[in-house]
Records
---
Amino acid sequence: MKNTGDVIRKRREELKLTQTQLAEALGCSQPNIRKIEQGSTPDIRIALKIESVSE
């Protein structure tokens, strides 16, 4: 079963974004994106922004 980080990584790659580009779009840091993709639970504000960027 995929975790949230796996889903986010897959969608980011589908959009052809780097972690840095996604971080800039979300107003957070690249290390924060890396941690989320590795399994950390994202802050709710970032999670909501991720949803809007991926649509």
---
Amino acid sequence: MEQAGPRLTPNGFSGAIATGGAASVAVRFRGESVVDHGNQKLIGYGVTAVVVAIVFALRFRSMSKERRLKLEFMWILPAIMVAATVFLLMQFTPHGTDWLWLAGIFAVGGTIGWWRGRLIPIAIDPDTHELNTKPSPAAILFLLGIVVVRFALKTVFEAEAEAWHISAVLLTDGFVVLGVGLFGVSRLEMALRAIGLLREARAAKATPQAA
């Protein structure tokens, strides 16, 4: 006597097809979403690379031109960056060991910024005491290297953030604090060096008059 096997009614057959079709559509949709996200990231990387290339090309073209260094305005950019960073940290306040990470990142950025500042030459007119600066190839290449390293680290950290238990907020705050340390301390080094040059020039100019 034959056992009755499972029977597929027309409705059951169409339901199975519908279920399988929905699953395949969902898988296809997820695959397309991943591809679209990957394409968006590639486009973002490409746009960033083009912008960076244009900026550094313009910097290389202007290397031969001296620019007036206005000591009284050098504090403006660091002040804006610090204010923006404080506002960001107030919106997403770090907790616990996050502060230690941010302090360490700021120290790294400040150290790199001090080196970058020292690579930028500053000249002073002995008569008018005007300060001038001219971008150096070493400083520009150094900054380009920093941009490349930062871009690579950002890519790695974003890919491994979940495995390394790094929050997206801490990652964003870290790169912001790194930029503040880099550019803020770079300007601080240049300002201190410019003040020293001004003192030396004024002392040298006053010495013959005193004699």
